[in-house]
């Protein structure tokens, strides 16, 4: 991936700089500048899932439509409200669920599936330090989430969204091992920071384009409040909302 290319380029530049500048007295300053630039690029790649820096993530669709995706549920208060609205509007969405929450609310997972929505893996713990887990610990966490989903629904998810959108080389190895497809987004609703529903609606409607994968969260009351208007505005603009699997043309389950 891009990380390997950037690393190879950085090493090459580092070596050439040593040869060229060693006797000038500026070599160490140049070495430090190269190291800082490398760290900056790597940090950007880690926190920007669209960059595909460590692994390939699907962040846009292939069709002239959009997909709604919800992270961090299921939530007993807001997920049912969101499902009610999706059913009323006849819209299918994707829910990237946290395993420990799905474990507590299997009835919500069953409802999501029974109403034609897709369930994806969003890790078991969603721990704030998950990006620093060892490869084995990360594998166990993700595998546990898939196991819970499979135990409830009778099918194993293939779609995975990294918590916080952060990736690293360990994710690349684990996803390959577990046969999970990383799914990002092209448009953030910023609903985790929104003070009211209008901030979400205005942000999405002003920026949405065909092929967008929209990131929302089904554990937020403000997101549930905004959903009806959000869907209506999209439909009025002639933007079709389709299941994620159809938009990206990949199967969601093994």
From TrEMBL:
Listed under GO cellular component are: membrane
Transmembrane stretches, by residue range? 5-22, 28-55
Superkingdom as given in the UniProt entry = Bacteria
What terms describe the molecular function in GO for this protein? hydrolase activity, acting on carbon-nitrogen (but not peptide) bonds; metal ion binding
Q: Which UniProt keywords apply?
A: Hydrolase, Membrane, Metal-binding, Transmembrane, Transmembrane helix
Every copy of the NodB homology domain together lies at: 64-242
PANTHER family tied to this protein: CHITIN DEACETYLASE 1-RELATED, GLYCOSYL TRANSFERASE-RELATED
Q: What name has this protein been given in UniProt?
A: Polysaccharide deacetylase family protein
Q: Which organism is it from?
A: Dyadobacter chenwenxiniae
């Amino acid at each position: 991936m891009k990380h390997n290319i950037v690393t190879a380029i950085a090493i090459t530049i580092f070596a050439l700089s040593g040869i060229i500048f060693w006797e000038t007295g500026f070599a160490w300053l140049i070495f430090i500048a190269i190291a800082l630039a490398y760290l900056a690029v790597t940090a950007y790649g880690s926190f920007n899932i669209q960059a595909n820096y460590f692994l390939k993530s699907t962040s846009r669709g292939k069709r002239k439509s959009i997909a709604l995706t919800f992270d961090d549920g299921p939530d007993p208060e807001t997920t049912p409200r969101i499902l009610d609205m999706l059913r009323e509007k006849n819209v299918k969405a994707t829910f990237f669920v946290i395993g420990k929450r799905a474990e507590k609310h299997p009835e919500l997972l069953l409802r999501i599936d029974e109403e034609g929505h897709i369930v994806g893996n969003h890790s078991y713990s969603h721990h704030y330090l998950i990006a620093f887990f060892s490869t084995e610990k990360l594998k166990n966490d993700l595998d546990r989430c898939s196991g819970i989903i499979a135990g409830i629904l009778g099918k194993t998810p293939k779609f995975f969204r990294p918590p916080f959108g952060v990736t690293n080389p360990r994710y690349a190895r684990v996803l390959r091992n577990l046969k999970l497809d990383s799914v990002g987004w092209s448009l953030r609703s910023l609903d985790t920071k929104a003070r009211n529903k209008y901030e979400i609606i205005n942000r999405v409607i002003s920026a949405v384009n065909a092929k967008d994968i929209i990131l929302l969260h089904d554990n937020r009351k403000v997101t549930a409040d905004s959903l009806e208007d959000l869907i209506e505005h999209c439909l009025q603009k002639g933007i079709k909302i389709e299941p994620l699997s159809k938009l990206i043309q990949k199967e969601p389950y093994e």
